[in-house]
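Shift notes (night). Ran Alpha-galactosidase while the centrifuge was going.
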Amino acid sequence: MKLKSSFVVLPLALMALSKSGALAQTVTIPIETNKNALVLEADDKHDLSTIYFGPKLADGKEYNHLSAAYGKDNDYTGLMASAYAPAGSRNLLEPAIAITHADGNQSLDLKYVSHKVDKVSDDVSLLSIVLKDQVYNTEVTLYYKSYFKDDVIEQWSTIRNGEKGTIVLNKFASADLYLKAGSFFLTQYHGDWAKEMRPETSQITHGIKTLDSKLGTRADLFQPPVFMVSMDKPATEDEGTVLYGSIEWSGNYRTDLELDPENNLRIISGINNYASAYQLKANESFTTPPFLSVLSANGKGEASRKLQHWARNYKLLDGNGSRLTLLNNWESTYFDFDETKLAALLKDTKKLGVDMFLLDDGWFGNKYPRNGDHSGLGDWQETKTKLPNGIASLVKGAGDNGVKFGIWIEPEMVNPKSELYEKHPDWVIKQPKRDEYYFRNQLVLDLANPTVQDFVYGIVDNLFTQNPALAYIKWDCNAVIYNAYSAYLKKDQSQFYVDYMKGLYNVLSRIRTKYPKVPMMLCSGGGGRVDYNALQYFTEFWPSDNTDPLERVFIQWEYSYFYPSIASSNHVTDWSKLPIKYRVDVASMGKLGFDIVISKLPENDLKFVQNAVTNFNGFKDVVWHGDQYRLLDPRENPVASVAYVNEAKTKAIMFNYLVNYRYDEGSKAPIRLKGLDPAKQYKVKEINLYPGTNSGVDENQTYTGDFLMKVGINPKVNSGRSSVVLQLDAQ
Ligand code: DGJ
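Came back to this:
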């Protein structure tokens, strides 16, 4: 990281100690962003606590009054609000860090030593705070990276072993947050294949609520790491104080939300320490992945716009760039294709008007051809019987048709029925003395092993070296980890889950060093694997295998709280009987793709999709880079409505869908827009009209942003017009 300037805020804290060993004065450390302040304080005993997280104060000097204002009278540990609660000393609550020292002792008491702030850019600052145990040579540096404009804070820690022998990290969280409010409401998510991102909101009661994953890979299949905490009352779209949080880690994670005896909320989040005690040799250090949070006093909508903006600018690969629209062959051919079929699909890609053809699963394996999901995974050579002229001829064929070519891989996985498994059984995660147990007939490769990392890197590198014009990778990951055991790690099995993920990130960062921008989709048989650590390496993710557009209205709605639409790969498929228009409109709220048989489309359907692709190219910039406003919630209304507005407020796209098919349901009243310029005049036009149907809005009329935001416009959604897209252009 390049730091523009660096300065120590205070003289070395130890110099400020009085003779009694207490700090001469408390040290108050505010982290200010555009609207908020997270304030930490080291007291006279050098204990570092979080004393405030809320709207920033007009006069920064008044942060010094916070601890007196709130008091700590009933905290007889002195550590309830600890910025990084250590285990084994005075702490009586859930710790952020627990260590076994080289001599077997399990106590830790971290004291503030010093802090400094580095200015990374005009927008970004990095605060680091050094804490030290006074008995053992254990040092922890807490990092808080604040993004001023977006009110986002990332925090993590580095734990250093200064002892002579090996220590064991039994718990090593990234964040230990402390919130004060009258009551707290948690919105968490659960799911399964095709049922991703189902929200549940409940009041947090005393004790600990844990959100976690122990799946190893695709960790969030059951429970994604993202969550919201509303303060005092459940936040709505535009009202209420809400904090969004997520650990940036693609493996096992654990977030504990503990309502303490003082009625304050502790949020301790990090890598899951389940089966993962980590050894740290003398002089080694361990850096945890970042935990991110964004706080808004104006409801869920504002919090999500800040997070999406931050993601596009700082995290998601090529977040401000463009994306390729595509035709995928998975649902139209499954494993059953050959060169002739693909040649026709390349022509269809061109006919449809999208940028690229994406060849899915089933192109590899010779001794055990991948003609189904039971064999071939791991053998990344083209199946000669299906593709005698190889991928190279397909890439060329795509070019001849004026489209690009992308390819599917699942490089972390292996079928037992494969040459890879036969040659390298020791590369496979499995228990040596137990029966194998499969998820989709496959096992996971041991990325804790550097040789396996080289192999996985080589799959991607070979594809690009042999086919320099290859434009895209869909990186799938279907299996979870059963029978966790690495032949490579031998006796250090408790490092396995962490080392697997480090190995995966190592491969991805090598790929990105050599191929910095080539678009890659983070896929996982559904949205079982999306988080902000992985998204540094990927341009998009696959929210769900469930592409029924009615389901997608709900699934994409929930994902959008945390991830920008440019990252959401939405494909039009035949999962549902809903009209093609509904399917295309829903998929257009992100990165549009198709997985249908173009040659079988009725004439008007084909005309419609071709026109919709052209329209999409006209407004995609607004959907991908604009601000998203949720207007009508499908969980509360018969109609869902979502709008995207560009930064200049000159253009907006409003999507409206019928989600309740009971008699006479529809939009009965105007729907109020948000985010427009009240002073501007907007012309409203209905686009994506199915051939032969008429617009439901008066296109000769213009409206002020003021009118559209106070009164709104009725898209006239009903059972005959179940999906309506309106485009607003400032005049
Ligand atoms: C799961 C993915 O989600 C699908 O889109 C497809 O790529 C299959 N895997 C292929 O096996």
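The two ends are 44 Å apart (CA to CA). Residues 5-315 form a domain with the Beta-galactosidase; Chain A, domain 5 fold (CATH 2.70.98.60).
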